[in-house]
Specification:
Elements (H helix, E strand, L loop, with lengths): L13 H10 L6 H13 L4 H7 L5 H7 L17 H12 L1
Length: 95
Amino acid sequence: MVLSAPPRPSEITFKEFEEWTEAVGVKRAQQEWEKLSEEAQANKRSAVAEMHARGFKDFREFQKACERFKVTCWPMEFSELGSGYVLYFQFLITL
């Protein structure tokens, strides 16, 4: 199965921007994605095929279903978002 990018919208609406903002940077998707990948290997199919089998049409829908980071979580939990998040919040702790 060859994946291709979805067609680009001719105009980005405010609603699409709000959905993107909600989906990016605040969810714990890495751990769920790893579980999904393990199940995909057990079922002998790709992670994307497993995602579709679970009823998600794309990664954005999958990510929406994941839980948010807790406000009181330890900064190392942000590592899936990038090292900058971890360093920033570690810095705030030391102040």
